[in-house]
């Protein structure tokens, strides 16, 4: 049971890593500067 929980946590961690990384890359490198930073 403990091993199954560890495996499930590993899978969910990988899924989160794969889904967040492209979004972070797009947000950082989209080329638009927020207006708050221009002040």
Instruction: Extract low-pLDDT stretches.
Output: none
Structural class by sheet pairing and helices:
mainly alpha
For the biggest sheet, the summary is: none
The helix-strand sequence is HH
What would the principal axes of the Cα set say about the shape?
Answer: rod-shaped
Mean pLDDT: 80
InterPro entries: AgrD (IPR009229)
Organism: Paenibacillus anaericanus
Protein name: Cyclic lactone autoinducer peptide
What does this structure look like?
The chain has 39 residues and is an all-alpha fold. 79% of the residues lie in helices and 0% in strands. It is built from two helices and no strands. It has helices spanning 2-28, 35-38. The longest helix is centred in the middle third of the chain and has 27 residues, at 2-28. It starts with a helix and ends with a helix. 0% of the residues are buried.
Helix-strand blueprint:
Blueprint lengths: L1 H27 L6 H4 L1
Keywords:
39 residues, mainly alpha, 79% helix, rod-shaped, AgrD
In short:
The protein is mainly α and 39 residues long. Helices cover 79% and strands 0% of the residues. The relative contact order is 0.09.
């Amino acid at each position: 049971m403990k091993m199954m929980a560890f495996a499930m946590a590993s899978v969910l961690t990988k899924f989160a890593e794969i889904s967040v990384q492209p979004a972070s890359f797009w947000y950082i490198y989209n080329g638009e500067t927020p207006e708050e930073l221009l002040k």
